[in-house]
Design a protein that fits this description.
Elements (H helix, E strand, L loop, with lengths): L4 E5 L4 H12 L3 E6 L2 H13 L4 E5 L5 H15 L4 E4 L15 H33 L2 E6 L12 H21 L4 E8 L23 H13 L8 E4 L4 H20 L1
Parallel strand pairs: 1-2, 1-4, 2-3, 4-5, 5-6, 6-7
Helix pairs in contact: 1-6, 3-4, 4-5
Length: 260
């Protein structure tokens, strides 16, 4: 059994892979989950290439049974869970509220919020054991600055992430005496595949937060003491407000063109 082990959802790319890499660098044995088997295999090769002990489990986190299989596979592989990183998200954006389908809304709520609740609930026994052992089992829930302010084309995502914030704060209140620490990561626009829709409005990846920046935030959390609870870390690009204004202007132009 490893000294420390972590489970990362959405670990095959973007923010999740960056966070998994830091956990591996810090000595954690890993399980990463994701939907795309090819991306998972590539991520495993990359992580093992730098000496990280990692297993991968493919599955759709919109399916409760897939979540159970993921956590069970982690338990079989590593026997413990000292950190849980919930980074999985449904990758769509740029859809105005008027054209938002119920199916898309349900998909975001299922993957961005419901799956996080189910993963935490299923992982609690192992997290509680780790908290009792060393006083600091860590849960990082990746949210978004979109949950705190209006972002054009992201109403469904923002609503789900606001729920993530409330879930995290409530879970911390319930487990505060169990040696489990919950932290919200709230990034602004981040250079991941999920943000590629902003390129239509002229927003470049170089203007955004980089996934590795969130990795360094996680490294900080791993090194704080059990008596230091960090409730939230925000990661904002300097141009966050300007990017939102540009997206709003782009949306207005697009709507005018459609009406014309």
């Amino acid at each position: 059994m490893p000294r420390r082990a972590a489970l990362v959802t959405g670990g095959s790319s973007g923010i999740g892979k960056a966070l998994a890499r830091v956990l591996g660098e810090e000595g954690y044995a890993l399980t990463i989950g994701g939907r795309d088997e090819a991306k998972l295999a590539a991520a495993v090769d990359e992580l093992r290439g730098v000496g990280v002990a990692v297993e991968a489990v493919a599955g759709d986190l919109g399916d409760e049974e897939a979540i159970a299989r993921l956590v069970e596979a982690h338990a079989r592989a590593h026997g413990r869970m000292d950190a849980l990183v919930n980074a999985a998200a449904y990758g769509s954006g740029g859809v105005p509220l008027a054209r938002l389908s119920t199916e898309m809304l349900d998909r975001h709520l299922d993957v961005d919020l419901r799956a996080m609740f189910l993963t935490i609930r299923t992982s609690l026994p192992m997290l509680t054991e780790a908290g009792a052992e060393h006083g600091k089992a860590l849960v990082v829930n990746v949210s978004s600055l979109a949950a705190k302010g209006g972002t054009p084309g992201m109403s469904f995502y923002a609503a789900a992430k606001a729920g993530v914030n409330a879930l995290t704060e409530s879970a911390q209140a319930e487990t505060r005496n169990a040696g489990i620490q919950f932290t919200i990561f709230s990034p602004g626009f981040t250079a991941t595949p999920m943000a590629t829709w902003t390129e239509e409005a002229g927003v470049a990846p170089e203007e955004m937060v980089q996934p590795a920046d969130l990795g360094e935030g996680l490294r900080f959390l791993l090194r704080t003491s059990p008596t230091c609870l960090v409730r939230e870390i925000e990661f904002s690009p300097p141009a966050q407000r300007e990017i939102i204004e540009r997206l709003a202007a782009w949306r207005t132009r697009a709507a005018a063109g459609t009406q014309g």
